[in-house]
Predict the structure.
Amino acid sequence: MEIIEQLFNSYGGSKNPPSKEEFIYEDDSSNLEKSISQHWESLINGKIPDYSLEEVPPYHLIYAYFLENTRIYQIVEKLIFMFRNDEELGVAIANNQIHKQAFNWITNTENIFFKTLPNTSYLNYSGNLRPNPEASRRNAYFRLLGMDLAFGMPTNPSSNEFVYHKPKFANREFILLFEQFLSEVWQAYINASNSSGANTTDYERIKNIVTKIRLMLMARRGGSGFINLADYRYMNLSKEEFNSVILMYWLLYVFLSNSPLIVMLGCQANSPSERLEILGQKVGLPAHKKSMALMELSGPSAAVLRAIEYGTFELTSPDLWIQKAIESRSALGSPVASDPQKQALTDLLNIINNWENATGHRIKNPEGGISGRVSLNGQKSVPESLAQN
């Protein structure tokens, strides 16, 4: 179920709720903020249909990381600043329904995500000690994933420098392990359809890499074993993760179609990445050249990392779970795979293709082995944190 639908189902208004289609254009921003807080409460208390306290949180920080790397946050931030302080982008016509909806979305986005929030708000992960929300997110990305964003301050679009607290404890080996995992999965997938020749698949190695990734991620969360909803609220980075994912999806949602905002600003196009690119040009901040691949990476990567943290890929009974998933498209494969296993393979193949596109690193045919030293293509220079020792 998509995030906007989840928030709509947690509507925080006292009466006359809007339709799902009108939800994000609500006149009262406080109702939307209450919806988000209620969604958090429902999530951590296992009150969302299809999720119990024994299951996993449906969102993952890597989803927000890939979306923010498109520069969507800084572009929308600049949009709101320009719209509120000048008329360079035009004026919303009050009696035009499309313009009214676009105006309400800008107002709601500013009121919910671009303001100082009370400490009691579940959307708040900044304050006197963490005054910059983007810096807080960058800190979280680096701690959990060992990766930085591929651009710097919006005041200097040609630089990738952004000052934030670089943590001493971070998963700097995540990229290396994740690429090794993707490479092994690809080789296993190719071998699953190979009826002749040597089969070099090493499922034990795949499982061992997955275990290392799980332990690495759980170490940063302050947990051991496997993730579950019952402990989620007490773990490091959970609030940052939830809020970052909600924010990035909220921003992405209006780019998924030629929404009222896109129409009012004259940014109509055939894909979300093209709409973002046009808007970036209008506000003077270039979107990442690989925005399409980054958007395509976000959902599958979140699903795969959640499965890893939950221990799904390490299951060995009654069969090796990851093997059945990888062989699910092969006529030579083992017994019929489950729908989750088939979806896992689809996600993994999507990640492999888009990871190569976004980073320029060859996963399918790595030359000289996997180094873990990659950059996100399309930017001026290599983010330092993607090439840590």
About this structure: Confidence is low (pLDDT under 50) at residues 377-389.
